[in-house]
Amino acid sequence: MKYPRLSAIVQDLLARSAQRDSIELAVGELILEESQLYKEWTDLTSSTFLADIKLNIRAVPAEQQCMWCFFVYRPAGGGTTCPQCGSVGAKILHGEEFYLEEH
Ligand SMILES: [Zn+2]
Question: What's this model's pTM, rounded to 2 decimal places?
């Protein structure tokens, strides 16, 4: 499983037996692989009432901060090079999220 946290979210939804038409997952773009996520969702929910609920995925844009000049930027193509100083040392601020959006 690529998304172990999905299983916990499904368990939680089942426990709450929440009546809703759809749910929305916020997933960081660095770890987002939509087809895989939909497949795991289907596997986990196929024999439950959640199978009738539409899964929406919201991609959270990646954002990194350079550890040298502290410039905050959106990494391009999986690279980590700072566009301001060229350093490759960066801290990930956003892009690895995985949580249920509560409305
Ligand atoms: Zn920098």
Answer: 0.85
